[in-house]
Fold these 4 entries.
Entry 1:
Amino acid sequence: SVMRTKQFNQKQKLAILESANKVGIKEAARMAGIHYTSVYQWRRRLEAMGEEGFLSYKPASPGRGVKKITVQQEEAVLSTWRNHTGFGPGQVRNQLRRQGITVSTKTVRQIMGANGYQVPRKKPKKDKGRRFASVGWGRTKISL
């Protein structure tokens, strides 16, 4: 059940924000069939830009929340990954950034996953915590 992000133009967003002032953000979002965090983002943007700026605002990429993966992105990710087979999604993303290609780690992971990349199970997180703790203790000892 993938939640399809609906596309709204700025006028429609403004209307949704106005209804949010009356019925509350969560209810307005529910009526519009979107996630309430979107409404918060629009409201922040409206506050930052004012109504005129908001209405003329064009999202950097069409439908900022939709994240359509373009063929170019996919090809760039796959060719980078082929050239650096040991790389994980984050490293591939950094490599692409150097080439001026902005793509989120999540997108890279999706593309790689669709092409046979095995996502390491979530073990590293625990290690990180432990490592931080030991570094912390080390520091404490030093400062004593």
Entry 2:
Amino acid sequence: MQGSHLIMAHQEQTGLPKVKDPSMNDRDRLQDLLAQEKYLTSSYSTALLEASHDKLFDVIKQNCDSSCQMQRQVFNLMFKKGWYKLPVADAQMVQHTFQQFVQYQTQFPFPPSPQFAQMAGQAGGGQAGGQTAGQGSGAQAQRQ
């Protein structure tokens, strides 16, 4: 059953109303919240790069981390309900994408982290990392 860990299935199906009226339903609310969290996370990331004071950096980093966690929780809930669909990638495509990013690291002006080197070593051995949908290791080939 090789590659079965890559199947992205959702447990719970809840349908949308057949005819959409002007009022917001739960899916609309979560979609709006997810878009807002993505925007906040992006804005906090920019602010982190431009923070000139250490204490300000720390506060922005806490906010950014909280926003990232909330974004992930909303994404997971939407995915579980079938409201955020992703294409299924086979093991070969995941391996190809990972190797592409491993090659990019040779262009960086700094050495890779030990965790990245370990993951690259595992990928070289023919493993795709053993990740399932909804799990992350910091080196996922795709994000929302």
Entry 3:
Amino acid sequence: MRRWLALAFWGALLLCAQGRAWAGSSVRYALIVGNNVGRSSEIDLEPLRHAEREAAQLRGQLVRYANFDPQRVELVQGGSRGAILAAAHRIAEQHRRDVAELGELPSLFALFFTGHGVAGRLLTADEPLSGEDVSAIVQQVDASLSIGFFDACFSGSLDLAGMRGKGLVSTPGFNPVAELPREVLDSEGTMWFVSSRPGELSYEDERLGGLFTHFFTEAFTAAAADGVGVTLESMWEFAVKRTASHAAKHGRRQTPEKIVRNLKERGPLYFSFPLERSAWLRMHPDVEGSFLLLYEQSTLVERIDKRRGAALEVAVFDGPASLRRIDLAPGAPATSQQLVIERGARLLVQPSSLAPTAHAPGFGEAPVRGKGALPDLELTHRQTRSLWMLEAGYRWQPVPAAMLGAPHAALLGADLARGPLRLGLELGYGRRGEAFADWSYRLHELEARVRAGWGWDLGGPRLDLEAGAGAALHLIDYADGGARKPAGLSVLAGARLMLPVPLRNPYVILQLNGGGTARWAQGVGGADHALHLQLAPILGVSIGVPLSSD
């Protein structure tokens, strides 16, 4: 009794579709079939436990990690031969529509069949699928690369006693070398995966399901990543090693095999992309059109459709890539620009006729350097810049009558903004004096404060959350001739808004800040040397003059 999974990866690595992804999507095709029950006129087969569940899991992995568009993945569970062939026909029709819109492009198609196999046929809910049926599907889809993966599994545990108790019967299963027509087996760009060697059996574990299917499903995220994602070769090696090891632990032998024929490309075929998308591609509201983003020698291609009137931001992978425009007039040559996307980069596509985008101090935009160009469009990337600035301003904070300090102070300072980080140093001077019935005093306050903040680019203005600490020297003269020079300390936290004037290449920068402060200072009385704590708001305004910006 053979249970198996025929996994054929065929279809378009790159193509467009009816359902357009406004946030960008990778377009591949897959047909996934899972049948727990297989009908056969030759033998009564015990239903499998995991085939239909495995089919659903494979679909989830393809959509989540392998960049398959859900609209281009057909899932058939417990279906008949007719239902399977109808699903394959829908995929082939989708492929043809995509080719008509985009032209001939590299294609990848994936077929997953998990169920029983007997005497060279795949069993369904009614009539079996033959090698000729599989051949017809391959030829109908007509993909650049066809990858077939067959996992013929027996219904039962790997426990020896458990297997004997189920009375399992060995059946021939499905062998692509024997069952597929020679012209299909040897056709250009094919890879065939078989779950065990001739003469070996393949197993379904009571807990895990089909061994080869289980470990291949794990490989989407567990196999070693290389470059932009995980290659099919890496996933294959991961599944092979763990399948053989798990079977050996239970005294069984299962050794998957691979057959590769007439591949054009020698480079890696990336199949799973579990890595984080660490960069962003933003399109200006005035941009309109259809684009392809191709990674790593076109091993992953994503389509981006952009409507005029609203900005679009798409998460992208870092690494070598190219951006191609595809909505050109008939007969017009394709245009593309190569680029290297850095981790954390923020790329912008905008009409070249527009004025440069305004950025807050510490941020900027620079052209993307690379081979090629997109006519009438400019591709730039967010850049960290350093801005030095001198500033003069005013600070206010309430001060209790019995506590040393000046409510009003004039400020001079210097700031450095580089990307989101901002550092500042300011010096302040304030005066205060009071006369009482029998004594009076005059106070001069000198203070120095350092600040550090983290800011955001608001498209010209900049908003920082900041914290700081400072020290103050209080020079006090009393009417009776006495004097003293106590010191004080303070910490603060708040927000600062920078408003460049004008927004691009500003001459001056207006700053508004506010927050809260904690101060420690002595009392105003000549004998009051104790430190008093005050919690109070603090407000400020200043004008800065940029000195330099790289």
Entry 4:
Amino acid sequence: MSNRPELLAPPEIFYDDSEARKYTSSSRIIDIQARLSERALELLALSVDGIPRLLLDIGCGSGLSGETLTENGHQWIGLDVSQSMLNIALEREVEGDLLLGDMGQDASFVPLWPSGWDKGLALRPGIIDGAISISAVQWLCNADKSSHEPRLRLKAFFGSLYRCLARGARAVFQVYPENIAQRELILRSAMHAGFAGGVVIDYPHSAKSRKEYLVLACGAPSISTAVPRGKGEDGESCSEDESSEENQTTLYALPVPAAAHQLDDADDDAHINERK
């Protein structure tokens, strides 16, 4: 039986009070979450001007990733479907604003919205300066209810995300696609919503350290799109062969940074513990 949490139960059921508290109390998970969030923030490529940005943490859980955003001087809004996770975030007095809702369905956390805002994130157009998500977006690829259609849920999510992001803003999602078909489904859904972007793979040749990040730009990018050479496990640039293999998964228009940061204690199967 698979140990992927998204195949065991819907997130609002899997992350009940017991699982949410166990997750948040693990020092190992806290460390992994911090490093994944730092990497996602790096890939957002925000201007270094000292101005706090309003960021969105999708699948924020108990606020572990949000703490990284706070430590870097940013304001944030966190969205999660697990009431238990959000209750712990409130207990921990995180500094972000928290919303209970399903990123892929009708939004229940906004009382009134104009026509067309009733799907996905339901935030006002253009107010978000960047978005991150750690180990959450792949949940949209599962049909946990008879009414769930993954393609429609991904369409609702990416369409609403595109609307709420400022033009030129980026979204960075650390994901665990189950297979190539699932990765391509997520990418196609993002591109159909209007995003440019692709996949950055940190340490593509390491079974233990490999991590995938979907890096998207909303509208015409306002930042440099030059692609630096990725770093290897020794801290040096990857070889031409490594770089070209990594770029085979960058399927769409926007070049994205591909520097790699090693996570010594995180292997691919450990993602059962790597939600916020």
